[in-house]
Amino acid sequence: MGKIRNIEIFDTTLRDGEQSPGATLTIDEKLKIAHQLAKLNIDTMEAGFPFASNDDFKAVKLIAENVEGPYICGLSRAVKGDIQRAWDAVKHSNKPCIHTFVATSDLHLEYKLKKTRDEVLTMAKNAVKFAKSFTDRVEFSAEDASRSDKEYLAKVIEAVIDEGASVVNIPDTVGYGQAEEYGKLIEYLKENVENIDDAIISVHCHNDLGLAVANSLEAVRKGAGQVEGTINGIGERAGNASLEEVIMNLKTRPEYYECDTNINVKEIYATSKMVAGCTGIQVQRNKAVVGENAFAHEAGIHQHGMLSNPLCYEIMNPESIGKQTEMVFGKHSGKHAIESGLKKLNYTFNEKQLNKITQKIKELADKQKTVLEEDIIAIADYELNKATKKPKIVLEELSVLSGNKLTPTAVVRINEDGKEKISSAYGIGVLDAATNAIRKIFGPDVKFKEYELKAITGGSNALADVSLVLQDKDKKEYKARAIDQDIVMASVKAVINGMNKIKNSKSD
Ligand code: KIV
Ligand code: ZN
Fold first, then answer.
1. Domains and CATH numbers, the chain
2. CA separation (Å) from 174 to 12, 64, 75, 199, 210?
3. pLDDT tens digits, residue range 416-431?
């Protein structure tokens, strides 16, 4: 094996990842994920796009002030106002980074930017020069690089390195590239950009054709020194390269890639769980590396081979990514055992919250004998979200009636800022009846955009986990979640949580 190269990992879960439809995160959730990403030991964290909104600015600033270890990076278009705003947010970090981008494909130049190649070249140079006046660590991205004219792309990259870009990113923005072709583009830049060794080549692949990880890895083989992506592969449209997959490929096949990363792989599983919990975007069971089935062996022949020697069917072991033997709690579990279990899952709570969680776990254990890790995560996440803002709308009563000779009917009574409101409605089922009753209270301004129901652990008494997205009259989306042993109750609680988020955001 030759000399092992270190590949830097650039995480954009909080920026590109947050652009996943329905994945908006609260500031507290972003900070919590940011701390976990630092524990994972990523090299750079793109914390947001500060110019995009005040909330984004606040989140990037808060992360820059509080999270140590990685470069804290803010995205900006290649214009002064954006770059200044990004700097104002990241300057609070002791390792600040400005990421500036402009598209380089003729398609984007003609239809989006309405600029000539020379104009874009000047924009790129000026942007890097301006960003460099604030900080040494500046990344430049040539958006839609994989569909850009190669010679023009090389010219832009050479010019921005001349201006001092420390990292040059070559995104496959629309996930169009094929592995060999994309690898050749990296090779071409290495051969044709004179000053290429003065910067790190970064790759940023989208997953529209399911090739984001393969394309990133091929680019690494051809000389890229940084890979960008997100935890669980979340992101715009079909998502970004799944960082846990990229990292574990490099880790599992060192003789093939001759590369390694600084990642603390033992934190991969906890990070994946946290991102899924906060965004409400669940990981499919058969997802590589972090899916629930990734290490499960069902077929008898596999089980036999596994018992003789795990290497027969297991190329990574679950402990290496921090997937421990599941914790199981029962009604006799004490508060301290629960607290230490929660600590292992990276949760810390105050005494009052801990008492509440213990009580909920015991109540659940009474009904379903054992409480699994998944249940605990759901209960902890719920408690955490509740602590963020005081609810202004409180559910006082939910009554439903149903049967084969009864039209499903629901009565909902809430208390909003001390005022009681009651409504009843019928529907196709009790869930429909309950949401119709709620709609009557809150009026037509709020729309239900998405609804996802998940049974956390098996059995008809499983804990129901409802995630949904509400849209207010300004088309702003709010993600909400609730858990309960009753599906209808979980759904109504989730709607009330969403309504509280809308109300809280209006009073901020
Ligand atoms: O996909 C893309 O091109 C991007 C850039 C802003 C880096 O996200
Ligand atoms: Zn992207």
1. 7-279 (3.20.20.70), 296-386 (no CATH), 393-507 (3.30.160.270)
2. 16, 30, 18, 24, 11
3. 888 888 999 999 888 8
